[in-house]
């Protein structure tokens, strides 16, 4: 379980950006705070909507660029959905798989590794070097199943 305070997380973000020769701008701080404090996986559009009251005028391209930078640095994980939308979360401290309800679209964390060593070995045997991997299971959540059965 991650017990880091928001201040400690902000210091880690500042240090990581500095190590890569990047500044920790107010926009980056707010975007990180929104993604890291959310229990849900967020799209860039959702992040921008939350930013509108805190930082009016921040553009969607700025949000996308910041989230992509964070993904490149390993600060956030990104997950492509079937409809092409990219979602972001900070599940790095606890790698996990995901379950997506095909009816309501909600995403749930599944506390199993997204990739296991057998998967990596199989890929290596094919000459592929694995950098990361995601496991996304699609189906019906318990709420939607209950509604369908009633």
TrEMBL record:
<dbReference type="GO" id="GO:0003700">
    <property type="term" value="F:DNA-binding transcription factor activity"/>
</dbReference>
<dbReference type="InterPro" id="IPR036388">
    <property type="entry name" value="WH-like_DNA-bd_sf"/>
</dbReference>
<feature type="binding site">
    <location>
        <position position="141"/>
    </location>
    <ligand>
        <name>Zn(2+)</name>
    </ligand>
</feature>
<dbReference type="GO" id="GO:1900376">
    <property type="term" value="P:regulation of secondary metabolite biosynthetic process"/>
</dbReference>
<dbReference type="GO" id="GO:0000976">
    <property type="term" value="F:transcription cis-regulatory region binding"/>
</dbReference>
<keyword id="KW-0862">Zinc</keyword>
<keyword id="KW-0479">Metal-binding</keyword>
<keyword id="KW-0805">Transcription regulation</keyword>
<keyword id="KW-0804">Transcription</keyword>
<dbReference type="InterPro" id="IPR002481">
    <property type="entry name" value="FUR"/>
</dbReference>
<comment type="similarity">
    <text>Belongs to the Fur family.</text>
</comment>
<protein>
    <submittedName>
        <fullName>Transcriptional repressor</fullName>
    </submittedName>
</protein>
<keyword id="KW-0678">Repressor</keyword>
<feature type="binding site">
    <location>
        <position position="101"/>
    </location>
    <ligand>
        <name>Zn(2+)</name>
    </ligand>
</feature>
<dbReference type="GO" id="GO:0008270">
    <property type="term" value="F:zinc ion binding"/>
</dbReference>
<feature type="binding site">
    <location>
        <position position="144"/>
    </location>
    <ligand>
        <name>Zn(2+)</name>
    </ligand>
</feature>
<dbReference type="InterPro" id="IPR043135">
    <property type="entry name" value="Fur_C"/>
</dbReference>
<keyword id="KW-0238">DNA-binding</keyword>
<dbReference type="Pfam" id="PF01475">
    <property type="entry name" value="FUR"/>
</dbReference>
<feature type="binding site">
    <location>
        <position position="104"/>
    </location>
    <ligand>
        <name>Zn(2+)</name>
    </ligand>
</feature>
<dbReference type="InterPro" id="IPR036390">
    <property type="entry name" value="WH_DNA-bd_sf"/>
</dbReference>
<dbReference type="GO" id="GO:0045892">
    <property type="term" value="P:negative regulation of DNA-templated transcription"/>
</dbReference>
């Amino acid at each position: 379980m991650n017990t880091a305070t928001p201040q400690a997380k902000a210091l880690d973000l500042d240090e990581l950006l500095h190590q890569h020769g990047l500044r920790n701008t107010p926009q980056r701080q707010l975007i990180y705070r929104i993604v890291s404090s959310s229990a849900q996986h967020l799209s860039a559009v959702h992040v921008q909507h939350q930013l509108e009251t805190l930082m009016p005028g921040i553009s969607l391209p700025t949000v996308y660029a910041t989230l992509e930078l964070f993904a490149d640095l390993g600060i956030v994980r990104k997950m492509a959905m079937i409809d092409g939308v990219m979602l972001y979360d900070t599940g790095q401290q606890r790698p996990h798989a995901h379950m997506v309800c095909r009816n309501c679209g909600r995403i749930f964390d599944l506390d199993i590794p997204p990739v296991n060593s057998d998967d990596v070995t199989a890929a290596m045997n094919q000459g592929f070097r694995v950098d990361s991997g995601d496991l996304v299971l699609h189906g019906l959540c318990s709420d939607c199943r209950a509604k369908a059965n009633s």
